[in-house]
Amino acid sequence: MSTENEGTEVPPAPSAPPVPVDSPAASPQPSSAPQGGATTPPPPSTPPRVPGTPPQGPAAGPQSGEAAAGAAAPSGAAAGPAPHGSTASPVDGSWPPPAPPAMPASGGGWGAGYQQPAPARPSGRRGGLIAAVIVAALFAGGLGGGIGYTLAKNDDTGSTTVSVSDNGASQVKRDPNSIAGVAARALPSTVTIEAQGSNGRGGTGTGFVFDTQGHIITNNHVVADAVDGGRLTATFPDGKKYAAEVVGHAQGYDVAVIKLKDAPSSQLKPLPLGDSDKVAVGDQTIAIGAPFGLSNTVTTGIISAKNRPVASSDGSGESRASYMSALQTDASINPGNSGGPLLDARGAVIGINSAIQSANNGGFGSSGQSGSIGLGFAIPINQAKYVAQQLIKTGQPVYAKIGASVSLEESSSGAQITDQGVDGSDAVEPGGPADKAGLEPGDVITKLDDTVIDSGPTLIGEIWTHKPGDKVKITYKRDGVEHTTEVTLGSRVGDSD
């Protein structure tokens, strides 16, 4: 789900701690938030091959791309592995918890920066005709690739219109419940967000209309650079662009709300929100975003897993991380998709695309433009909706807490309450929820309600799916003996305390 500041990104990955596994209680994954492509992807090292022609030689164009950096995740960008080591983190929502170290992802590219070798000349007039057709096809393919590369390079700052005869294709009637029907309804309510900080750093991400007052939901890491004195714009698919401002942002949840300036209500059609608790593995998904700056891109897939523990860093170097119990999807998500809607088959929003798995570093991160490998992660909309409402109401996020610090060390046995809290404070807050429930330093929490807890970040992400005041059942081990207790979650306001 790669957090990239530039725009376009956490369960466990098989090769790095924590890595996505088949169990819902997998260790949290460091992830890369799929934000926007702040850098232009380079052309491929090997040119595309036309069927029936011999393999081509290496590309002649540039070979390397600069990694896109992001402020928090799915933006969408690559972040480091989930926090591990002997660091303690307040499960009560105390801030800032340690972030996973950023791990650069190698850049990828596409385009037509290469030369096609001349095909062998067949004998005879018929052979000559075939050769001419092949040459024409190769030329057309190279031209098309060149146009695509130019559009990506321009990062959607301009547009290209090509007039062709559709021979009545546009008159075809499509089922409103088909993917084409859902996309036609949802696209007018999505926006491509361009964020730029006062230092010039920024990138491209995605957002969608939340209400008719001009509020847009997106990822925190998409807009983080523009929070203090930066510049924000949101562009609709019809080309209309509006200036925007940040209403509120939540680093821990990786959710932000911006508000459009001077946007007429006729332009604002909120997307319907679904119920992420009722989503099932195998349900169809539709993702909309601006991967690598290619706005209004629609991809499809299914729900691959639920409740994936994900921990992602924004790649900014700050000691902050985002934790989520994510929806996993194989819909293609790339840098630039961050903040965009993940829809169900009816067109209702079930999640916010936030992070992606990076294949080359075994983890999640936000400092590179890794591409989709079919492992994307979205913040469940039930959680995102609650956070957005709090941000609109007060401008500050509200986190649920149990009032105890746990180890962020990689583990499979549970979340252990540390002997000492952050900065020498008490590991169990005196008079806090955990203290009232009888929890003590050294206890190892193994379950929260029916969810298996295998590490500290997993516990944090699961707690943050709840609201302050919720009652949860905690299963823990003390001296090898299993116990259960009920905890009434407390609250903490803001990202720093």
TrEMBL record:
What keywords is this UniProt entry annotated with?
Answer: Hydrolase, Membrane, Protease, Transmembrane, Transmembrane helix
Could you tell me which residue ranges the PDZ domain spans? 411-480
Q: What is the species of this protein? A: Streptomyces thermoviolaceus subsp. thermoviolaceus
Q: What is this protein called?
A: PDZ domain-containing protein
InterPro entries tied to this protein: Chloro_Bact_Ser_Proteases, PDZ, PDZ_sf, Peptidase_S1_PA, Peptidase_S1C
Q: Where is this region: Disordered?
A: 1-125, 410-442
The answer to whether UniProt assigns keyword Magnesium to this entry is no
User: Where does the record place Low complexity bias?
Assistant: 22-39, 58-94
UniProt KW Membrane keyword: yes
